[in-house]
Amino acid sequence: MTAERTDHDPRIDPVGPVGPVGPVGPVDPTDPADPAEPLQARLPSLRPGDLERGRIPFELYTDEEIYRRELERLFYRGHWCYVGLEAEVPEPGDFKRTQIGERSVILTRDRDRTLHVVENVCAHRGVAFCRERHGNRRTLVCPYHQWTYSLAGDLQGVPFRKGLRRGGEVQGGMPADFRLEDHGLTKLAVATRGGAVFASFDPGVEPFEQYVGPTVLRYFDRLFDGRPLRLLGYNRQRIPGNWKLMQENIKYPYHPGLLHTWFVTFGLWRADNSARLVMDAHHRHAAMISTRGNAGTASEASQVASFKPAMTLHDPRFLDIVHEPWWGEPTAVMITLFPSVILQQQVNSVSTRQILPAGPGVFDFVWTHFAFADDDDAMIQRRLRQANLFGPAGFVSADDGEVIELSQRSFAAVPDRRTVVELGGRDAGDAVHMITEALIRGMYGYWRKVMEPGEP
Amino acid sequence: MDIDYAELLQLQATYAAVVDAGDWDAWCELFIDDCCYRLQPRENHDRGLPLATLSFESKGMLRDRAYGIRETLFHDPYYQRHIIGPPLVRARDAGRIRTETNYAVFRTKLSEPTTVFNVGRYLDDIVRTPDGLRFATRLAIYDSELIPTSIIYPI
Ligand code: FES
Ligand SMILES: [Fe+2]
After folding, report:
1. Judging by DSSP bridges, how do beta strands B31-41 and B132-142 pair with one another?
2. CATH assignment of B5-142, given 3.10.450.50, 3.40.50.970, 3.10.290.10, 3.40.50.720?
């Protein structure tokens, strides 16, 4: 997050605010204004129907032009991206710096408590002026020439705008037709729901609720039901892998039984866990809803070789799970909101996991753990303790970063191979079990639609 | 508490030796039973946010981590090497001594160059036991903004 782009970035219009592309909708596929190559021309190893039935060319994870197109079409246009929690900017004047795709943005709370998201690019000469990651300010001031913006991003003052008066003569100054209104920061569309904040560079983006869709929104609302949240803190990691691998990682619930032997060893992942997988109508978002099994003993229920019935924790508090009323029946719900975030409820541990791509082969992964303001101390301690399972060193999540890094190594070395994502069939659909990779196929079906030339 | 400075250095050097050798049982034994070990981003520490990357509240939890490293955590193999600075004694009373000590950890993956892995400082509460000096509390507060993929072994 500290690294700023220094090379020329064609996405940043040097003259004025970036013109976000118009409303999303059907576009003439022969649109001569879309210079993008058809996917099949760009990716020689992509065959017709491949993506939909689960054959993903390795070069989909390494190609620079594809990556730039993803930033444009997935992160900057037509989608809402996660920027934070309201609890991170509770007071008027509070701000938080974060990113959407590779672009630096600032979430602010105005004096009237309204939330704004503005781009961290000075309208004068482009300085990424906000360096602190959080703080409280009355205004946003660029250090270079002190252009001053309101918390909403409106330009309020420019030094020497009227020039310098010397002996009755005015020297310099902005041209008479210079209007402050024309030179604000780029303002993003903002949506908040239940304390989570999303933003979009695209003023024509559909309403947030419609974007998430009713099926997944139900689970979003289960977690963010409007209770005030309490920020517990952050973990940040940089994973040398393509950002899509992290979305994929949370789209098939059978991998914990195989990769995360800690889950299995201590009986948290059992073959008699029940699972339901649902997607939005576009197949871009998903929720994996699982309920811990309680039939018989764990040893009978588990068919996974690494389960060790005699194994117990030295300190069982790692798994001091207390069923909270708001869960309903499910004990874990993992939501993937495309493209930018994963919402985690794994027993008593709740967090958002933000994806910040930094090139085709690397992304930063920011974990924001939180509690609910009405939690008692014991519950907060429990959430903090269970955080040992998740995050860059977590008993289970550390494995995920490792395997993503190792996948990417092959992708770079052997770009013309294809992955085999066929578990549970060759189509995409909801499921009532966990032995399927259907959500990944669904995501790539959507990805193709958006990424072809002429598409939104 | 009366402690010879050389004893403090010996404790720090022993810690580096056991975690760099991967001797997780010996790592656990450098702590008292009712201990606290926390690996925490500086950002959280400075802002008073309680989340840690690893947060253990007993020797039992350390043993559970040792088990996880040996038996359950899949990871790319690596060496780690701690370079620990001289401890600064911040406070001492009858029961314990409080120190602050800079550290840097280098990581070496097989077939790859060595890189800086994690940099920060230890905030320790050290007590005397019949077996020698032991950590009652060891907070590893790291400056490093981004963990390179993951941290498997204790810092
Ligand atoms: S670049 Fe920001 S004020 Fe000049
Ligand atoms: Fe996983």
Report:
1. parallel
2. 3.10.450.50
